[in-house]
Design brief:
Length: 285
């Protein structure tokens, strides 16, 4: 009985909530993505294509640096450190630490390098895809196992048989109810908008507002419709696709003109305000 009583406080002290373990994995991904984005911003200054062929090596150096300054020195990833979580130091022998580096850094580099450079080797690509699909399946099985046991959320943790430990003891996770209330209000507002917006004909509303604010109105100019290689759609300002017109000199894409006329019975040319139900194809002479 005495031994059991002594072991019980230790179990409570080492307990880590499931949500904290999952959040630490998500934080690690976010930190890696942020650093990769910063590196991409720096590489954009260089001439195009100068270091594009070294992308796997750049990611390998980044992941190695993150692993060195987190797992090697503190026995915890940066995401775990932000949530006051660490691995059991007694369970991470030098051999397991090296194997952790191999699984989390070397293997992803090998996979990315094969996919990046051996694109013509169909057998290798099929093998990599098969292994990746197998890992996805094992990750799914391990996730359900984690939900049941509450330990070892990642496949690497399961293979190395290492557990998390809380640095704050049995401290409970604080729940920000103000944040939850704000999210509920925002979700209700979005549902209201999603229900009401389809009933609003914003094409007609935009046309009426434009007509009210327009100080000068331009009338139809009896000029011939012109179509050349530089002609742009009067609505989307892009290269004209299937050119059509509504009676004025301005040219529209087929979908731009037809869609606006179907959505708004009083559609006017957004350049000269000419209003007509005409829908004609522009003939190239």
């Amino acid at each position: 009985m005495g031994t059991a009583n002594q072991g019980s406080p230790r179990m409570k002290t080492n307990f880590v909530p499931r949500v904290n373990q999952l959040d630490s994995i998500q934080l690690d991904h976010e930190i890696t993505n942020l650093l990769r984005q910063q590196i991409q911003n720096v590489l954009q200054v260089l001439p195009p294509g100068l270091l594009s062929h070294l992308q796997p090596e750049i990611n390998f150096v980044l992941n190695s640096a993150l692993w060195n300054f987190s797992m090697r020195t503190s026995y915890a990833t940066f995401g775990q450190q932000m949530l006051s979580i660490t691995y059991e130091k007694d369970q991470l022998s030098p051999q397991k630490l090296a194997f952790h580096y191999f699984l989390t850094t070397v293997l992803p580099y090998a996979k990315e390098s094969c996919q990046f450079r051996l694109t013509s080797w169909s057998r290798v690509q099929q093998l990599v895809q098969l292994v990746e699909n197998g890992l996805v399946l094992f990750n799914l099985v391990n996730f359900f196992k984690f939900l049941r046991s509450g330990t070892r959320p990642s496949l690497v943790d399961c293979l190395l048989r290492i557990n998390h430990r809380s640095l704050d003891g049995a401290k409970r996770r604080n729940i920000g109810y103000s944040y939850m209330t704000r999210e509920l209000v925002w979700a209700g507002f979005m549902e209201l908008l999603g229900f009401t917006i389809p009933f609003v004909n914003y094409h007609a509303l935009k046309r009426k507002i434009r007509n009210m604010l327009r100080l000068e109105t331009t009338h139809r100019q009896d000029e011939r419709v012109e179509l050349n290689a530089e002609t742009r759609c009067a609505y989307c300002n892009e290269r004209v696709i299937l050119p059509h017109h509504m009676g004025c000199r301005h040219v529209f894409c087929y979908l731009c003109l037809k869609g606006n006329q179907l959505a708004d019975a009083g559609f006017q040319c957004n350049v000269c305000d000419y209003r007509s139900d005409t829908f004609k194809k522009v003939l190239v002479l």
